[in-house]
Design a protein that fits this description.
The chain has two domains: 270 residues, Aldehyde Dehydrogenase, Chain A, domain 1; 185 residues, Aldehyde Dehydrogenase, Chain A, domain 2, CATH 3.40.309. Helix 6 links the parallel strand 9 and strand 10. By secondary structure, the protein is α/β, with parallel strands linked by helices. Helix 2 runs antiparallel to helix 4, helix 2 crosses helix 6 and helix 3 runs antiparallel to helix 6. The structure holds 2-aminohexanedioic acid. The site of 2-aminohexanedioic acid has 9 residues, from loops.
Amino acid sequence: MYTCLNYIDGQWMPAQSEATLESRNPANWHELVATFPHSDSTDADKAVQAARRAYQKWRLVPAPNRAEFIYRVGELLLQRKEELAHLMSLEMGKPITESRGDVQEGVDCAFYYAGEGRRLFGQTTTSEMPNKFAMTVRMPIGVCALITPWNFPVAIPCWKALPALVCGNTIILKPAEDTPACANFLIQIFHDAGLPPGVVNLIHGLGEEVGQALVEHPGVDLVSFTGSSQTGAHVGEICSRTHKRVCLEMGGKNAQVVMEDADLELALEGALWGAFGTAGQRCTATSRLILHRDIKDKFTAMLLESTGKLRIGAGTDPDTQIGPIINGVQLQRVMDYMEVARSEGAKILTGGERATEGPIKKGFFFQPTILDQVTPDMRVAREEIFGPVVALIEINSFEEAIAVLNDTPYGLSSSVYTRDVNRAFQAMRDIEAGITYINGPTIGAEVHLPFGGVKQTGNGHREAGSAVLDVFTEWKSVYVDFSGRLQRAQIDNH
Ligand code: UN1
């Protein structure tokens, strides 16, 4: 059992109220994984003050030196990968191989952004005046509040924290209440990497209390949030009222198209991994399969057969392919969608119920579920379910496939299986999404490419890659006049 604490100004401490909350194993709710501080606005304020003080020094540390800390975070994550992955499977439930992948994504991020310490490129350009020099430089923003979800308890905090830090910002991490122990472990690594006090802070607690307090706080300059569209809208509203920079990563309703000319075996593997990996609890999960009518029956039969063989179990069991749903509330939500599916006329081909047999009866498991006869107007074709549920939609042409794929309020990830290069390039052009895969599943983003979506998935920003530097820095334009006289732009040169 872990005892999580807040981490403020380089010190581990309980909430000022000393109240605590519990984190339980979703595969066995009798098992307590951790207790964590039930922080309130007083704790949030303390963290903001510490981060503000630290910012004044950290912003002046040369970026290559800041990067050395980031590099050490990567090394420590690698050294402790197995221990952290095990804790993640216990606390969050995903299969151990996926937990290792989650930690590895943090490592990849660390090494990528450590390298950024020796780039952080700006531009030099010409001036319209003689004897005048012009350039742009990236400036840090200040104190960043990072509000992160439970589905990638290491990768997503790393996506946000590491670029924020290398750019010269200080941070306060508010992790999801379902995965506090993973966050504690990660912040211990930041501590061990020797980051100066106040540069990195951790505040545990409930989103509606301490998350809200951080987003409202006048001492916070930027909020980076990943989570539901509903909470994202709320965060965005507060940030616009308080003039904070805000980066929102929200829902998806990602589709995989399988055309009649596709390699069906390959498309099947992609569909299984995309729809049921992480029990469908990824914002990039495949929640719609758009199938050409010529292969629909054959592909559906193949999918049904393979789905029936998937092994459900605790993430810590190396044989498990589908772990639990994160908690009882989320499980209920997935179950409610089964009612919605039935009432709209969709047919449940397999699954559709809780999985309760054998050793998993004390966990929040749901059977991998295939919904057939889904039409694009149904709620199950439009709303994010966040569980191991995939909807089958039949189409008659490639043009219809793209139109159906685009027909949702979201635009995160997308995939097309075809052997036709012309169709592949048309898909890359016409799909409305931040990410498009050709002959690969909708999941599997790599850290050096931008991550994010169009339409209601985001608010125009991207995480990861070099694109996230535009979230965590502001451009400054600098003019140096070495003519020794006043030169009036737009006037003296005309
Ligand atoms: C998420 O779904 O919240 O592409 C993040 C992927 C992972 C990241 C997913 N690398 O599925």
